[in-house]
Amino acid sequence: MVQIAMATGFILILMGLYGALTNHNILRIIVSFSVANTGVNIILVAVGYMHGRTAPILNEAVPVAEAAARIIDPVPQALVLTAIVIGLGITTLMLAFAYKLYERKGTLDISKFSELKW
Amino acid sequence: MQFEWIQIPYALLTLSIIINFGLLMNAFVAKIGARVGRRVGIPIYQNYIDLIKNYGLRSSITHGVMFYLGPVFRLTGGIGLLMFVPTIYGSVMFSNFSFAGDLILALYFIFFGTLGMALGAGESGHPHAAIGVSRGLSQVTMAELPLALAVFSIALQYNTLSVTEIVAAQQGGVLNWTLFTNPLAVVAAMLSFLGSVMRPPFDVVLAPQEIPIGPPTEYHSSYLALMQTNRVIFPIAKMVIFMNLFFGGADNWPVFFVKIFMIYMFAVFIGVVFPRFRVEQSIRWFLIWAVPIGILAVIVV
Amino acid sequence: MKEELEKRIIKGPDGLEFEVEPLRDYYCEAPPTVMPAAYSKIVEDLFNWARSESIWILGFGTGCGAIEMRPLMTPRFDAYRFGVQWRPTPRQSNLFVISGYLSVKTLKRVIRSYEQMQNPKYVVGLGSCTINGGMYWDSYNTIKRLDQYLPVDLYIAGCMPRPEALLQGFADLKKLIRSGKAEGANEYAEKFEWYKANQKKVINDWDMPDYNW
Amino acid sequence: MHELYTKLKQYFPLGELIEQRDNLAFITLKQEQLRPVILHLRDKENYTHLVLLTAVDWLEDNIFQLTYLLSNRANATDIGLRVMISRDSASMESIHDIWPTAATYQRELREMFGIDFPDSPRVNDDFILEGWNDIPPYRRDFDTLKYSEQTFSQRPGRETKDPAEHMKQKLYPDGA
Amino acid sequence: MVNVIFIIVIGLGAAFLLGLLRENWRNAAYALTIGSLVSMAWIAARWLLFFAVEGGTTVEVFTAGTEPPFAINLRMGIAEAVLLLVVIFSGLLSAVYMSKSLFRLGGRAMSVLLVFIMALCGIILTRDIFNLFVFFELAVIATAGLLLISENKQALSAGFKYLIISQLVSVFLLIGIIFTYHVSGSLNIDTIAGVSLDTMKGIGSLAFFFMLIAVLTEAKPFPANGWALDIYESAHPAFSAMFSAAMAGSAAVYAVDKLLLIGGQQWLPVVTAIGLLSFVAANLLALAQTNDRRTLGYSSVGQVGLILAVIGQRDILGDNYLFIAGGILLSHAVAKAGLYWISGLIGQRNLTDWAVLRRHPMLILSFVSFIAMLSGLPPFPSFYAKWDLVMILATENRLWILAFILLGSLLEASYLFRWFGYILKRETPRQEKNEVENKSPLLSLVPHKLLVIFSALATSWGLAYLWGELSAYDNLFYALPLLFALSFLLLEWVSVWIKNTLAIAGMVAYFVISYPLYDPLQIIFAAIFLLGGAVILLASYHVHGRRIGFYPSAMLMFAGLAMLVVAEDSFHFFAAWEFLTIGSYFMILRGKNSEPHALSYIIFSLGGAFLILTGFALAAQGVVLFNLGSLAHVAAPIAPWVFLLLAIGFMTKTAAIGLHIWLPGAHAEAETDVSPMVSGILLKAGLFGLMVLLMNMGKQQLYGIELTYVMLWIGALTAFLGNLMAVFQEDAKRLLAYSSIGQMGYALFGLALMNQLGWLMALMFVINHYIYKSMLFLSVGGVAKRTGTRDMYKMGGLIAMMPLSFIAVLIGIIAVSGVPPLSGFGGRWIFYNAILSSEYRLPMMLIFISGPIAFLYLFRLIHTIFLGQLKDDHRQIKEAPFWIMLPQMIYVAALMVFAVVPGLLLRHVDAYLSPFFAESAARGGLNWQGLTITSDYGYWSPIPIMVIIAIIFALLFAWLVFVNRKAQKVKQFNIVYSAERPFRPETTHFAWNFFAPYRKAMGFLIQPFVTRFWETLTELLHTIADLFRRFYTGNGQTYAIQLLAFVVVVYLFRVEF
Q1: Which of E289, E484, E566, E866 is most deeply buried (CB count within 10 A of its CB)?
Q2: Torsion angle, CA of E668/E669/E672/E675, rounded to 10 degrees?
C-alpha cells in the first residue's frame, strides 16, 4: 500500500517535472507543476501512513490514552494540508502571471519571454 | 691627502704640459697620417695657429645662455677629469686633486662634458646638432659599457677603487701591468676606447658630409677654440686613466708621453684601416664583440 | 613672399591670439657692423699671421670649379701643408671660394653662407665666370661680376684654373691677409646697402632677412 | 621596330615612323592617342621605363613637340613618342599617374617652356628658376642675351674673341 | 522584553489589516506599513541591545505553549537579532524609498511588502524545517507580488521564471522535509541535529541533501541562478535591494547555516565549494556586464557565495565565526542595498550612464564607501572579516580556498573600480529634448530616496566603527592620521587655500610630533612621506576653487604612509598599505585621461595587497598581533613562501619589471601635483615594505634558489628595461614614469645586494629619487600646463620662455644621471662600492648599461622641451605658476645641500644599518670622518669636488663671456642650414623619434611582451566571461534544467567526499 502510493507519488513528480521541462506552453507548465505537487503530496501522506492504524482524530473510537499506539502520525497530514494550500496559492499566482504575460505579448510560449538574459 | 694651496700651481703646471703635449701630439699624429699618404702634412705647430686664429676672430654670435655654457661644460669636463686623476705616479707635484675622489668619480665625470656639449648644441637650435647628439649618445651608451665592465673587473682584481693604489700594484716590471695580469679587461677597455675617441670606424657622430660635423655645427670663434682646447685635453685625460689602470701608469714625464702616444696610436691605427660604422652597426658591434669580453673579464677575475 | 614667411595669427595654448611675423620673430634683424681690429697693432699682426696660416675654406662648391678644389687635398698638391683645410660649416670657415659660374639661384645661397661666416672672412673668385661671366656671358641666369655682390679679395683667372694656380692664389691671399688688406667683411658692412641693392636687383624672390646672421 | 609599329597600327591611328637606329625609333602621335599608346607599350610591350620627357620649340610652325622616350629594358630598345601641341596656351595631359617621375619633367617643362600639365603635382611651383618674371626662357622667342644685358651688370671692357683667331694673332702677330 | 513572536504577528496582522482598509485610504495604509515596520525594527533592536549590551543569552520561544516536536519554536539570539534588523531595516528603508510606487498600487502592495519582510523574519527565527518551508513559500509569493511594482515590464517574465524555480524548490524541500521527518521523527532542527548522525545515512542523508539544495538554491548559487539575475535586473531597485540584502544575503544563508546543524561537518565542504564557485564565477561573469543592475546582481551572487564559503569554513573559524560571517554579510547587505538604491536614481541602465552621479559629491562618497565595503577595504567590516578569515585559512593550511577567495575579490574589485572610473571619467549622457517625455530623467534626486541612501552611508561608517571596536586589533578610527584625512571630507566646502594650508600644517606637525619615536630608517621615510609630501603640496596652491575630492584622497594616502612607517604589526601595516593604495588610486583617477590607468593601478595594487595579506597570514600562523619583527622567526618550510609573497606584493608597488605596466599611464596621466606625489613618494612605500621584509627575513632559499639573488636580477632587469623604455617615449611625463621604473630597479637592486652599502645606496636612491623625480614631474607638469601638451616634439626652445623650469630640469637631469658634482653621483659611488663587496657579478652588468641609457632619455627630455626650436604657438608662453616653481626651487636647493653634505642624513642611517649586517661586517659601512667619505675600496670628498668644479667652471665661463661680450644675439632661424633657411620651427626641431638609430639597434628589447601578457590575460578573462554568461539563456525552462543539473552534479560531487 505505502509502496504503491510512494511509487505513484514519485511517478507523478517525474511526470510533472518532465512535462514542465518539455512543454513550451506556459499553461501546460503550470498544469505539469500541479501534477508534480500532487505527487509530492501523495508522498507526504504515504510517508505518514502506518499499516493498520486509523486516522488521527481523537474521538470515542480512539481514546486519548491509546492514541499514540493506534493512530497514524498526524504531522504529515497537517503538512499535506499546508502544502496543498501553499501549492494552490502558487498555482494561482502562476496563472495570474500567465494571464499578464499573455496580455503583454499575446503568446504563452515560454521561450518568447527571454529578453532578460546573460 | 688633503688640499694645500701649492697644489694649484702644480695643477696649472700639469695642465700646461698636457695642453702643449696634446697640441703637438695631435699634429704629430696628423703628420704621421700625411706621411703614410705620401703627403707633407700640416706643420707641427699648426694646431697652435688654428687655436690663435679662432681666439682671434673678431665677431661671434650667440644663441643663448646654454650656447655659452656648452663649451664651458665641455672644457670643465676635460680639465676636471684631468685634475681628478693623478698624472705621474709617485709624484706629489703631479697627483693633481686626486684626493677628491677615486676612479668612479673620474668615470662619471667623463659625462659632464658630454652633457654640457649636448646642451649647448641643443641650444643652437640646429637639427644637425641634435642628430649628432642623438647618434653620439646612442653610441656612447654601448661603447662605455665594456669600459665599465673592465674597470669593475680590475677593481675586483686589485680590490680597490683608488687609482694610485691600482698603479702601485702594477709596479715592478712590465709583466705586472694589468695588460698581462688581466688581458681580457684590457682588451674590453681598449675596444671601448675606440668608441670614445671619435675616430673611424666610430665617428658617425661628426659625419661631416651629411650632418656637417654634428653637435658643434654652430660653434665658431672662441667657443670653438674652447672646444678645440678640450679636444686636446680630454682624450689625454682619458688616456691617463687607461694608462694608469692598464699599462702600469707612468712615474716620469717621458714614460708618460710615450705611453699616451702609444695608446693614442692604437686608435689611430684602427681608424685609418676601417671605414665608418652606422650607429646601430657600431652598437651591435660593441654588443657582440666588446661586451662579452668585458663580461668574461668580470667573471674570470 | 613665401607663405611660411608671411605674418600669421596664432592661437596660443591659453587661447590668446597673437601675431607672428617670421622675419621679425625668427630672424635677427640687426645689420652687420664694422669690426675693429685688435686694440694693439702687435696683437693684430699676430692674429693676421695666424689667420693667414690657418685658412679654413667653406666646403661649398658653387660651380664646376669645385672639381679643381679636390686635388688640393691629394698628395700631389697637399694644401694642408699651407694651413689650408676645408670646413663643412660657414660658422667655422674663413675663406669662401666661389668656384666657377654662379647662377642667380646659387647666388642666394652663397650670400646666405657668406653672411653666416665670421669676421674676418675672405672671398676668392675662381675662374673667369666669376670675373665676367666667362662662357656664360649671355646666360639668362648667371651673374657676370661677383664683386657686385660680395667683396672679393682675389680672383684666380682661368677656365678652369689648375690647382697650382689655386695654390698661388692662396699664397697671394696670405700676403693680403698678413698685410691687413683683406678686410672684405668690414667692406661689406660699410657698403652694405650697395651690396644689398645689387643682390636684390638680380634675386627676384628675396625671401630672407637682409642679413643672415 | 616595324613589327611593333604595324602591331600598334592595328589598334591606334599612328603617324609616321622614323627609325633612328635599330633599337631607337620615333613615332608621331595625336595628342589624344598618347595615353592609350603609352599604356599599351608599358603593359603589353614591356616599355616600362620613361627615359625622359622633353620638348622642342618649333617657333616657326607655332608648335611644341613633346618627346616621350620609353625604354624596353629586356631587349634594349627605345621608342620615342612625339606629340605636337599648339604653342598658344600650350597644355598637355599629365602622365604622372603612369610614371610618377614624369611629374618632375613636367614641372621643368612648365617652367622652361610654359607648357601646362594640369593636375601634375606641384607643377606650378618654382623649380629651377626662382622668382622668374619673364617669358619662359627656353622658348625661342626669349632673347637671352638681351635679358642678360639688362639684368646683370657686365664688366666693362670685356670683349669676345674667337679662340682660334685670338691665339693665332697672339702667337704669330705678324700673321705668318 | 517583547516576545519575538510579535515581529511575525505585527507583520502578518498589519498585512491583514491593510487588506481591510479602504482602497483610497492610502495615507493611513502607508502609515500603518511604516508603523508596523518601525515597531518590528524596534523589537529587533531591543533584543539586540539585550544580547549585545546587557549580556543576555539566547532565548527559545515556543509558539503553541509546548516544546518541540509538538509545536513550532523560534529562537532569538544575537545573530538572529542582527539579521532581523538587517531584514527589517532594508524593508523599512525600501518602503520609504518606493513610497511613490506603493502609493500608486495601494494597500495591497504594502501588505505584500509586509508579508515579504515577515516571511524573511520567519525564516531567520524559526527552528522548524516545515515552518521554514512555509516561510520560504510566503517569501516566494510575496516576491512575485512585489515584482509587479517594477516599472520594467520584463519583471513579469522574471517573476514567472522565479515561480517555476520555486516550484522545483518546493518539491525538493517537501520531499526532503518529509523523509527527514520520517527518519528522525521530528521537524525541529535542533532535535534532528541531536538525533541523527547514524540515521542520516542512506535515505536520511538524501533527504537532507534535498533540503539543503533547496535552501541553497534560494541563496542563488552559480550556475543555478539565471532567474535571480533576471529579477535583479528587472525588479524595482528598492526590491532588488531587499532581495539581495535581506532575502539572499541574510535569510537564505542563515537558513543554510541552520540546516547545516542537521547535516553536520561532512556537508561543510559542499557548501564551501558551491560558495566559492559562485563567488569566483559570478565575479568573473560580471566582468562582461554592461547593465548596472545585472552587474549588481552578479555581485550579489558573488557576495552570497562568499558568505556561503565562510559558512562552509565554520569548522575552523571557531569564536570568530560570527565576527567574520557577520562582517561580510553586513557589508554586503548595506553596500548592495545602497547601490541598488542609488541605481534607482539613475535614469538609464548602462554602467557608463552612472556618470551623471559625478556632480554630486555625497552620492560619489556613498558609491565609494559601498564599493570599498564590497571589496573589503579598510576601515569597513569586510576588511576586518577578510583579514581574520585569511589569517585562519592560512593557519589551517586551506590555501586553495584562500586563493579562490582572493581571486574572486580581485575580480570583483576590478569591475567595481572600473565602474567607479566610468562614473568619474565618462561623458555625462545628455538628454535629448524630444526624449524627455517618454524616458525617465537621467538622474532624479528625490529627497526621501537620498535620505535612504545616506542612511545606508551612515550605517556603513557606523558599522566600520563598530567592527573596529569588535576586532581583536585597535580600531582604525583611533589612528590620528586617518581621522585627519577623514576630517577633510567635512571641509570639502572651504577653498583650496585653507585646505592646503591645513594639510601642510597637519603633515609637518605630525612629523614633528612623531619625530622622537622614529629610528633613523623611519626618519628618512617619514621625512620623505610627510615633509616631502608637504613640499609637493605647496604646488597645489596653484589650483583655485574647491578641488573637491582631492584633499580627502591625498590625505588618505599620506595617512596611510604615515601609519605605514610606524606600523609594528602586520595588521596595521596592511591597513596602512590599503589606505595609501586607495588614497593614491583616487588621486590618480583625478587625471584627465587616467581612467584605464587608474584601474590597472588599483587592480595591480589590490593583487599585490592580497599577496601581502597571504604572506602575512602564512607567517602569522594564527598569532593575533603579529609583530613585523617576528618575520625573522618564521619557520623554515613556510619562510621562503612568505618571503616570496611579500616580496612580489611590495614589488608590485615599486613596479618591478613584469608588474610595471600600470605605472607609466598612472603617473603620466595624473594631475601636475599628483604625479610627483605618486612617483616621488608613493613608490617609496614599496621600498619601505621591502626593507622591512629584507631586514627581518634576510636571505631565503626556495628549491635551492636564493630569492634575493632573483630579486637582484629583477632589480637589474627593471633598471635596464625601465630606462630603455623611457628612451623611446614621446610623452614627457610617460618618459619620467618609465624612468621611475628604472630608478626603482636600482633601489631594488641595492636592497637585494643584502649588504650595508647596497642598502645605503638604496636609501640614497630613495632620497634622491624623491627630490629629483618630484622636481622633474613638477617642472614637466608646469610646462605641460602652459603648453597644453605633453608630447615633447610639440615643444622646443622653451628655455627662453621658462628659464626657471629649465634650471630645475637641468639640475634634475644632472642629478639623475649621476654626473658629479650633484648628489646623484653619491648614489653611483656607493653602488660601485656595494657591488665590489658582493659576490654577484652578472646582474650588475645590466645596471652598468642602464646608467648611460638614462643619459639618453634625460638629454632628450631637456633638449626636446627646452632647447631647439621654439614653436609658433609657444611664443608668448609664460613661466610656470609661482606655486609650481616654488617646490622646484626648494628641491634645487635641497639637491645642492645633499650633494655637498650627504652625510647629514646618511651617516646616521649607516650607523643604524650596521648591526643588521653584523655577520658580514668585515666589509662594512662607510667612514664619514672629515670631508672625505671612505669605503673599503675608495674615497670621495663631495665638498672639494664641488669647489674644484665650480672654480674651473666659473673661470672658464667668465672668460668666455668676456671674450664674447660683443657677440650678436641671434634668433632661432639664424642657423647654418646647408645654405638654405629653415622652413618652419616644426620641421626644424629634431625631436620626434629622437633615438631612431638606437631603436634600430636595441628596439628588439622593448617588445611589449609584458603588456601583451597582461592584455591577453584580461582579454581571456573577458572572453570567458562573455562566453559563459551566454549560458543564461533567459528561458525559464532552461533555468529549471540548469537547476536540476546542478542538483545532480552537486549530489555526485558530494558522493566523492
Answers
A1: E866
A2: -50
Partner B contacted by C89 (CB < 8 A): yes
Beta-carbon separation of C54 and B209 below 8 A = no
Domain boundaries in chain B?
8-300
Contacts of A115 in chain E (CB under 8 A): 154, 157, 1034
Name the residue of chain C whose CA is nearest to D162's CA.
C135
Res B143: pLDDT: 87
Min Cα distance D158 → chain C (Å) is 7
Closest C-alpha among C29, C32, C23, C33 to residue C1: C23
Q: Which candidate from C8, C11, C213 shows the least CB-CB separation from E970? A: C213
Task: Determine the average pLDDT of the residues in E1012-1040.
Answer: 89
pLDDT score for E806: 93
B231-249 confidence digits (pLDDT tens) = 899 999 999 999 999 998 8
Cα separation, E90 vs C57, in Å, equals: 93
Please report whether residue D164 resides in a domain.
no
Q: Has residue A84 been placed in a domain?
A: yes
- Read off the pTM: 0.91
Chain B nearest C-alpha distance from C157 (Å): 27
**Distance separating alpha carbons of residues E546 and E497, to the nearest angstrom:** 9
Q: What is the band of E97 on the pLDDT scale with cuts at 50, 70, 90? A: very high
Cβ E686 vs Cβ E714: under 8 Å: no
Task: Identify the pLDDT of residue E931.
Answer: 76
* C touches D, CB cut-off 8 Å, minimum 3 pairs: yes
Task: Report the range of poorest mean pLDDT among B240-244, E634-638, E1019-1023.
Answer: E634-638
Query: Strands D17-21 and C154-156, how do they pair?
Result: unpaired
Within C64-139, strands assigned E span: 84-87, 95-99, 122-126
**Domain at C41-202: CATH code:** 3.40.50.12280
Q: Which three cell numbers stand for residue A46?
A: 504515504
Residue type, E388: D
- Give the number of domains in chain A: 1
Q: Is D153 on the interface with C (CB under 8 A)?
A: yes
Q: Where are the domains of chain E?
A: 264-427+443-468, 483-953
* CB contacts, 8 Å: E150 with chain A: none
Whole-angstrom Cα distance, residue C191 to residue D1?
A: 65
Any chain B CB within 8 A of the CB of E995? yes
DSSP type of residue E154: T
Q: Quick check: E1057 pLDDT over 60?
A: no
With respect to residue D31, please indicate whether it lies within any of the assigned structural domains: yes
Q: Is E362 on the interface with A (CB under 8 A)?
A: no
Q: Which residues in chain B have their CB less than 8 angstroms from residue E856's CB? A: 137-138, 141
Query: What average pLDDT score do residues E368-376 get?
Result: 92
- What's the CA gap between E296 and E291, in Å, rounded? 9
Q: Which of E832, E851, E941 sits opposite B161 (nearest CB)?
A: E832
Backbone angles phi, psi at D114, to 5 degrees: 75, 25
CB E594 within 8 A of CB E678: no
Q: Is the pLDDT of residue E433 over 70?
A: no
Pick C131's closest partner by Cβ from D130, D148, D155. D155
pLDDT digits (tens, 9 = 90+) for A78-90: 888 888 998 898 9
- What is the average per-residue pLDDT within E382-405? 92
CATH of the domain at A79: 1.10.287.3510
Confirm if E111 and E18 have CB atoms less than 8 A apart: yes
Question: What is the pLDDT of chain E when averaged over all its residues?
Answer: 88
Q: What share of chain C is helix, strand, coil (3-state, %, to 5)?
A: 45, 15, 40
Whether the per-residue pLDDT at E329 is higher than 80: the answer is yes
* Mutation target vs D (from C111, C138, C201; most D CBs, 10 A cutoff): C138
Give the mean pLDDT per block of 10 residues along chain D (176 residues). 87 89 92 92 92 94 94 92 92 93 94 92 88 90 90 84 84 78
8 Å CB contact of B59 and C37: no
